[in-house]
Amino acid sequence: MKATLTVLGSGTSMGVPTIGCDCKVCRSSDPRDRRTRPSILLEYAERIVLIDSTPDFREQALRENIRRLDAVLYTHAHADHILGLDDLRPLTFHREDKLPIYADGDTAAVIERMFAYVFDPQSTYSTRPQVRLHRLNGQLDLFGAIFKPLTVLHGDHPITAYRFGTAAYVTDFSTIPDAAMQQLQGLDVLFLDALRRRPHPTHSSLEASLKVVEALKPDRAFFVHMSHDLGHEETNQGLPPHVRLAHDGLKLEFEI
Q1: 126 pLDDT more than 90
Q2: What architecture is the 2-19+28-255 domain classified under in CATH?
Q3: What is the pTM of this model?
């Protein structure tokens, strides 16, 4: 079935513009150089699935007119991927049941600790987010679409990437193990971390991500989680035709 993917945020943990920075990209007038924290939204079969709730989720939801969610998936527990959980509140108040959210065991444990007021059964906070946390245990069937969690490495830290239909979202990685590479074959759309040009100990660089694209040969590849080292138009001019930097608000269709 057809699905629409929206890039809610294409930036790294500090966002672009970065506070206090006067570099060319941070001062750019190109709206594609304005990057909120990394997240995507999937719409299919009249359902809406969010991957990661960033500190910018409120701004992203207002920009894209998000009025409901049916599920949330998490990649890992770093601040730029989970701190928007509290901003899910208005999207949960009118549900008949709690909004299901999914994370691996380590990520779930951090979420429960950081948002103790949400999950504590003794909590008296009446307007806390109405969510139910599920620990990932293999692939998920969400509303007729299969989401396959894949383990990649963010430095030494394992995080969850996702394949869904003919697309995959691989954020915050420095290494993709062979088992995950096998699961990323035959893609139409591949999203990859590409922090900057210079190597980084826990993130993929532009050159390294291009090598992953060359190995996997997706029909289309988009880079995300980008810092202010990469200007949108200038960088795109040096990329192969089927590879582009993503930008906030980018929408595309694929088979899920």
Answers
A1: no
A2: 4-Layer Sandwich (3.60)
A3: 0.97
